[in-house]
Amino acid sequence: MTELKGLFSQNIRRFGMVIALIGIALLFQILTGGILLTPLNITNIIMQNSYIIVLAIGMTLVIITGEIDLSVGSVAAFIGAISAYFMISLDISVAMAVILSLLIGALIGAWQGFWVAYVNVPAFIVTLAGMLIFRGLTLIVLGGRTLAPFPEGLRTLSSDFLPDVLGGQTVHLLTLLLGSIAAVLYIINEWKLRKDYVKFNYNIISLPLFISKLVLITLVILVFSYVLALYAGIPNVLLILLLLIIGYSFYMNNTTTGRHIYAVGGNTHAAQLSGIKTKKVTFWVFVNMGILSALAGLIFAGRLNAATPQAGNLFELDAIAAAVIGGASLAGGVGTVVGAVIGALIMGVLNNGMSILGIGIDWQQAIKGLVLLAAVALDMISKNKSR
Amino acid sequence: MTATILKMKNITKEFPGVKALDDVNLEVQEGEIHALVGENGAGKSTLMKVLSGVHPSNSYSGDIFFKGKKCEFKNINQSEGLGIVIIHQELALIPELSIAENVFLGNEQTNKGVINWHKTTEATIKLLNKVGLQINPQVLIKNIGVGKQQLVEIAKALSKEVELLILDEPTAALNEEDSENLLNLLVEFKKQGITSILISHKLNELMAVVDNITILRDGKTIETLSMDKDAVTEHRIIKGMVGRDVDDLYPERTAKIGETVLEIKQWNVFDPENPANKMLDDVNIHLRKGEIVGIAGLMGAGRTELAMSIFGKSYGKSISGQIVKDGKEVQINNVNQAIENGMAYVSEDRKKYGLVLNDSVRKNLTLSNLRKISDKTVLHKHQEVKEAEKLKETMNIKTPDIEQKTVNLSGGNQQKVVLGKWIFTDPDILILDEPTRGIDVGAKNEIYKIINELAVDGKGVIMISSELPELLGMCDRIYTLSEGNITGEFNRKDADQELLMTYMTRGRRSR
């Protein structure tokens, strides 16, 4: 028990976020009379927030570098528009159009990264300009109108589910199978890590605590996949998200370039004098943000099945809020991908719960603002205390 | 007999988990200069924070008497109201404001709420005269040197009708000339009846000006020495600070000097801010294996500029000249190439240029050579932990574990992390820029030992320092640098402080 307490106080930030997410979910579960956590609605929450999560992952990297990107909403809208132009007006194949769109996203990122990294224009200004530029270009591409509908292929990306090749009737069997495989992989991985830790003499948690952790997380995976299976199974977009989350977490924690990103944000001078090409790091982080903005734009356009001039409005603020609630520091050097995802889910559950309750968009905005403020303020207070 | 101006009795202050001050007593006489010495973490700054009200009166136990009256300060304003002014180690000046604006910041000279600039300027000139600074008060703080900034801080203190002036490491960032000015100023103040408390690591300069020295160690008062009555020597003070005999601050080393490892030829560097300004002019130096070479120069002589321009052209514009490594000319245009060619540079400002403070000891130690613990891109965490633990052992870094953030380490241990980080790159040449600035005697001694070991291992070490005794104690050979020119080159046995100083202040090389 004391061990658990110790762990808790050491990782209060991480536990705090998860607890906040669970707390908010339970609160709305009660307030909505059990609608929030129905299989249908859980699936909805994932799909509604998929593009924000994609943006939040990229934004976390940008914020860790010590920069900011205000243009992601406009870029997403622009990519939605241009992909619609490719697919609907020019009749280019979906795969080709997606590849082109992601390339254009990369180019946009390179454009902004160039000004930030090599000309030293503050990112706030560059991306504020980008926000205007790409919103304007969106209007130009669309001629102020809405382009619709998209071909089937793009809609599959954001609105469809994995087909149940196992032919389940009331439950989606493939989802259950994948969920079980994930749980087994998780257990094997944790066990291997623990063995390594013992070998290298790390401080490790005691065996009972370790096993309870394994059981708890395995249960979460299984219950989650069961709930999804009760509705329509795994959404395609969830697969993309999982790939991104696992991939980017690994990248940030276990690669040299990931380490470089943290160092550049933590202390640019020291990083530079340690032989890190700081400008290059900043540049590529923006290129990455451009690609992820493009992906978010495609997912959003596919979900709406239309490219509209107003698409992506205020996405940048949701993405920044998610990253910051998830523990990223605007001073740079601090933040995690998983944190940003949880931050995005907190905002998502709030949105969804309030919508079910029929709270108007006016109050929703105000409440979300207060939550953002409270999250960061609590963080600051706990930091000041520990000092 | 003079009166006691300040008496701090049985002061005990606890932070969560640590007793920072344990029954400390301090007595200061009116009109004296009183030195407060001790290793980092001994409690000097905490004691002064208690005195000035940064730590309010309910957060510690014990009594403070100022001029015989008991004081319970709740904040800085109350202590300043009585004339107790503290000047912190990190200067509290605003770079974008003028000298006059800074001097009267928070104490603006106003007429019914509107600032009276005439009065402000006049009063500032008067105060600046008192500290011996002839400078236009409209000049922005960012445009004057650290030495002058320190004087402006003192002028600011004078504007508050100061009776007790506390200076926390005022000379740490100053060169010898500025330090001397500042200390002379304190002596001048003493004649005018202003009492000073001086916190400093530079014992030799302390001993020249102070009347009494109080030594703190581990949050306790060890003793108060009187310069008149006791036979005070540097050795005696250090013994009190460390609690044991530090027989030799500069450890012995038998130099085994090998072949030339580095040559810098006709090195010219221009100021990036002002390209017409030549910062280094035709510098020629060389370094041999197993040799420690010192570079002595006043602040602004171009010491750091020389080091950084060699280290991957990290400073300067239109750099010309040759770098010869192991007899072959090499092109070094960025830090990566410098590291590949076996160079390492430990900056004079470890917090700004050396460490990622929010990252752990482990991540800082491996940052310059992630290649060694990864295959191309993916890091091997276990190997990293192993290497970091090894460095922690060999460098004797005092930290609970390697996951500790470096911001929580003491200055000496931070410096060991920076050194360790460069040793991890296995360099042939180490350029150490003020490697012992602002760290305590015990840690200094350890750093010297590490530097000696590196030299014995056959590495070439260039050591830049503004403390001449340090250079004379450590180096085999010393160059003097003045206004961007190498003005002299001396073997250790031929050099002394006076000689070096002469050449450090010489304008041009006299051939």
TrEMBL record, chain A:
Stored InterPro entries: ABC_transp_permease
PANTHER family on file: ABC TRANSPORTER PERMEASE PROTEIN YPHD-RELATED-RELATED, XYLOSE TRANSPORT SYSTEM PERMEASE PROTEIN XYLH
Gene Ontology cellular-component annotations: plasma membrane
Highest taxon of the lineage: Bacteria
Lineage: Bacteria, Bacillati, Bacillota, Bacilli, Bacillales
Chief place where the protein resides: membrane
GO molecular function, one term: transmembrane transporter activity
NCBIfam families reported in the protein's UniProt record: GguB (NF040906)
Keyword Nucleotide-binding part of the UniProt annotation: no
Role: Part of the binding-protein-dependent transport system for D-xylose. Probably responsible for the translocation of the substrate across the membrane.
Protein name according to UniProt: Xylose transport system permease protein XylH
TM region positions: 12-36, 42-63, 94-116, 123-145, 165-188, 200-224, 230-251, 281-300, 320-350
Membrane association type: Multi-pass membrane protein
Keywords recorded for this protein, A-Z: Cell inner membrane, Cell membrane, Membrane, Sugar transport, Transmembrane, Transmembrane helix, Transport
Entry's localization field: Cell membrane
Automatic annotation (TrEMBL), chain B:
Domain ABC transporter per the UniProt entry, residue ranges: 6-243, 264-508
Keywords: ATP-binding, Cell membrane, Membrane, Nucleotide-binding, Repeat, Sugar transport, Translocase, Transport
Domain of life of the source: Bacteria
Membrane topology field: Peripheral membrane protein
One Pfam short name: ABC_tran
Predominant place of localization: membrane
A single MF term (Gene Ontology): ATP binding
Localization, UniProt: Cell membrane
Gene3D superfamilies: P-loop containing nucleotide triphosphate hydrolases
GO CC annotations on file: plasma membrane
PANTHER family for the chain: CARBOHYDRATE TRANSPORT ATP-BINDING PROTEIN MG119-RELATED, XYLOSE IMPORT ATP-BINDING PROTEIN XYLG
Protein name per UniProt: Putative multiple sugar transport system ATP-binding protein
Lineage: Bacteria, Bacillati, Bacillota, Bacilli, Bacillales
